């Protein structure tokens, strides 16, 4: 049979997901809407042997295997995100009655980077995995909870930002585990396991993070994202040109000695706080460039322009002191990366504000 993004959950991770369900939960109905080989539901059956197990998978052949292997389960084969398909399935009869949903949704299908999904009667643009999570959340009972594996990039991408905001109005979202790139056979991706539990109605609110109370507030002038790709720089090398700063040139300090020089007419002068845009976040790579010598930033570097050298050092020190918080803006299914938008939001969170024009 044809597999649809079939990256099955390892048994150890399945057990960990089941253990993440709060101890007081005694589910009558447990469901998985992308059941695959059924490892999540097998783990659920071990913990809650009296629970009714509901399995759905898009692949008819996979569903047939599950029916033969687990005759006590309620098994359906339908396209979970397609109402006309899922609405005819046996699994749809449990809408609003599921006490625990376990989910390892499709997240690596090429060409399916964005879908339009419905949540609480409103249409939301999001990624495929996020669409699965939202629809699974709508199947839950009044006190139901959801444990889901999500691509790590979902938590940082602008694509899923609105969807997470809407989900967070109804659910508390907590991290269960970070799963490395070798967790799933056949796919090289970092993922994160999260637990969704319903908010009490009187506490339903938007998930806007509280600002860190840091005083005095600091300021910066502008954010700059480098645009020169290193492989293209080879064609514009010029010994009399401006230094091109790559992530390898920032570690504890800015090193101009090893930087290649390129033929461009305009560069950036200090004071700047430089940090990597791409790559594993490292405290040593958040550095101040004081020099008047104009430099050019590669596309792997972001610069924070400041009014004075003192301001630049103050901004860098604030980032250093709040590093555990700041490094959360780096994410992605493949290589970690951040964006200008994420940097600006985190700077505001750390009471570092852009100067008004």
Written description of the protein model:
- This protein is an alpha/beta fold and 357 residues long.
- It is 24% helix and 27% strand.
- It has helices at 11-19, 39-47, 60-69, 83-86, 128-137, 158-168, 230-233, 309-321, 323-326, 340-349, and strands at residues 29-32, 52-57, 74-77, 98-103, 115-119, 122-126, 140-151, 171-179, 191-198, 218-220, 222-225, 237-245, 261-262, 272-276, 287-289, 296-297, 301-305, 352-354.
- The strands form 5 sheets. Strands 3-2-1-4-7-9-8 form a 7-stranded mixed beta sheet, sandwiched between helices. Strands 11-17-14-15 form a 4-stranded antiparallel beta sheet, with helices on one face. It has a 3-stranded mixed beta sheet with strand order 13-12-16, with no helix packed on it.
- The longest helix has 13 residues, at 309-321.
- The model is unreliable at 1-5 and 202-214 (pLDDT under 50).
Pick out its properties.
357 residues; alpha/beta; seven-stranded mixed β-sheet; four-stranded antiparallel β-sheet; 18 strands; disordered N terminus
Task: Explain briefly what this protein structure is.
The protein has 357 residues and is of the alpha/beta class. The protein is built from ten helices and 18 strands.
Q: Low-confidence parts, pLDDT < 50 over ≥5 residues?
A: 1-5, 202-214
Strand order within the widest beta sheet: 3-2-1-4-7-9-8
Tally of DSSP helical segments: 10
The class by helix and strand makeup works out as alpha/beta
What average pLDDT do the residues reach?
87
| Most strands sheet | 7 strands, mixed
Q: Based on Cα principal axes, name the global outline.
A: elongated
- Rg, rounded, reads 24 Å
